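Study this chain:
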Amino acid sequence: MKSLRSISILSLTLAGLLFCASTARADTLTFTIDNATQSAVDGDTLIFNGTVTWYSDTGEPIYLNGDSLTADTGLTLDDSSFWTNFNSLNSGDSFTGELFTATVDPGTPDGAYFGTFEMLGGADKSAQDVLGAPGFEVDVSSPGIVTPEPSSLVLLASGLAGLAGAFRRRLTR
């Protein structure tokens, strides 16, 4: 009987602790490239936009202090727009803007080219933690050369010949 009472007290104590325990809290940063897959031809410059959302239980801001941008050979990347558009976010804020541009180098063979954009930052203005690293893709294809069909040219030529013949008959009458 004594052990049954001990088990009951222990069970009630554990149940009480579970009911009184606070829920776990976590800060949440969401970072995505909105148009992560794009198509291009030689010389095209593509704009990649991103959305960053920050929520902190403590209400602390997050500082977006830098980036690291890598891609396969054949793409030239420019991240200067990141420095202009993204600075810091207060808890509950979200921002969408231009992250970077990718230019397809002349002579780049057809195919898929991949890269990664790492956003760096953290709790202060000097933090360099990786906050997110979404990937992106550029599908390069050669532009198609448009040539008229031979039957279209024959149809046009015969129509013009018919008009010329009708006009000539009218002049000779």
